[in-house]
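Subject: for your reference before the review

Hello V.,

The reviewers asked for a structural picture of the protein, and I figured it would be easier to keep everything in one thread rather than splitting it across files. Below is the amino acid sequence we used in the manuscript, unchanged from the supplementary table.
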Amino acid sequence: MSPSAFGILRSGTARRLALAFVALIALYAVATSIALLGFAQVNQGLAQTRARVDSMRLALDLASAVRDQYAHQAHTIIIGNDSHLGFYAEAKTRVLTLIKDLRQRAERPDEHAWVDDIEAGAAELDGIFTRQIVPAVLSGRSADAHVEHARALAVVSRIQQRTDLLAKRFEDAIGELQSFAQATRDRTVAWSVFFLVLAPLLAAGVAVYLGRKVARPVALLHAGAERLAAGDLDTRIAVGGDDEFGDLARQFNTMVASLKEQQRRLLQAERLAGVGRLAAGVAHEINNPLGVILGYSRLLRKKAAGPLADDLAVIEEEVLRCQEIVEGLLDFSRPVEVGSQPVDLRGLCDDVVARLADASPTPGVTVTVAGHGATTGTASKLRQVLLNLIKNAIEAAAPSGCVDILVGDDAERSQVTVRDSGPGLDTEARERLFEPFFTNKPRGTGLGLAVSQAIARAHSGEIVAEPPGPRGACFTLRLPRPKGETT
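And here is what came back from the structure prediction:
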C-alpha cells in the first residue's frame, strides 16, 4: 500500500467509512461462519445417526443369528442326527462375524461389556452344543440332550437380553443425535434470520452515516462554491466537527474571507490610484494660481489697513490651507521611496512630541512615551506618520486628556501604539479611516491617515485601528524589525 493510501486511512472520515464497511463484511463473515458451522454439525449428526442405525441393525441381526443358531441345535435334537451341523456352523460363523463388527461400533464402556457378555455367551452356547448336545444325540441319550438344550436356552436368553440393551442404547443415541441435529438446525436458522435482519439495518445505518457525514457536507460545499462563483463573498459554510469536511469548510470560509479582503484592498488600491492620478493633475494645476493669489494677498495686506487688512489675512489663511491640501494631494500621489537606514522609533516619538509641544502647545493634555523599538526605512517618512498619529491623538484628547505612546517589539515586528482619552471612533469611522478625504474633524483634509497608511505599507508595515476600548481611540503602527536583530 502506498504512503498516500496510508495517509487516507489515517483520516477520520476514511477510517470511519473503512470501519463501517469492515463491520458489514465482518457481519457477513460471522453469519456465513455460523451457517457453515451449523451445516457441518448437522451433517456430522446425520453421519453419527447413520452409524448408530447401522449399529442397531447389527444388534438386531445378531439377536436373529443367535436364534438361528439355537434353532439348528433344536433341529438336531428333534431329528436325532447330525444333518443340521453344517447349517449350525454357518449360523455360528455369522454370529461371530456380527459380534466382531458390533465390537468395532461399541463406544461406551458398558457397551463393550455387553459385547463381551454376548461373545462369552456365544462361546458357552457353542460349547454346550458341541460337547454335550451333539454327543448325547448321536448316542441316543435324548433326555440328556433335552437337559442341555434347556441350559442352552438360558444362555440364548442372556445373549438376547444383551443385544436388546445394545439395540436400546443405539436407539436412544439415534434419538439424541436427531434432537441435536434438529436443535442445531433451528439455531442456525435463527442466527441466519437474525443476521439477515441485522445486515440491512447495519447497511441502512451506514447509508445514513454516509448521508450525514459525507453527502450532506459535500452538498453544502457544492452550494457554497456555487454562491462564491456567483460573486457572493459573504457566503459561509456551517459544517461542524473535526473531520476532513469540517477542516475543509473552515478552510473554505477562511479562503472566502481572505478573498473578500483581497478584493476590498484591490478596489481600494484602484480607487486610491485613480484618486492619486486625479490629485496629482489637480494639484499641479491649482498650485500655481494659489501661489499667485497668496503673493498678491500678502502684497495688498502690506498696503491695507483696518477691516481690509483683516479680510486679506483671512484670504491668506485660506490660501495657505488650500496649499496644505494641495501638498497632501501631492504626497498622496507620489510613490514612497523607502531607504534601508536603521530608524530609532523611540527617538522619533520623542522628537515628534517635542516639536508638537513647541509648535502648537495644547494646555492640559499629558503625553507620555515609553518603551523602545527600531526598524529600517526612511526616518523622515516615518516621522511624518508618527506626527500624524500623535497630532490626531492630542487633538482628540484636548483640552484636558492624555495620550499614551508605547514603543515595543516582538520576535518579528516593532510597533508604536498611540492611545488617547478622547471620545473614540464609531464603527463607520473605523471602517473608513484610511479612505482619502474622509475626516471627522471640522477642518480636516482627510488625507493624513491615507498618506500615512501608504507610507507604512511602503515600509512593509501597516497602521491598524484597534477595537474600541473603555475610552478613546487606539492606533498601532506595525513595522518589521531590523534584519539580523534578535530579541
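For the response letter, the relevant points are probably these. The radius of gyration is 58 Å. The longest helix spans residues 142-229.

Happy to draft the paragraph if you're swamped.

O.
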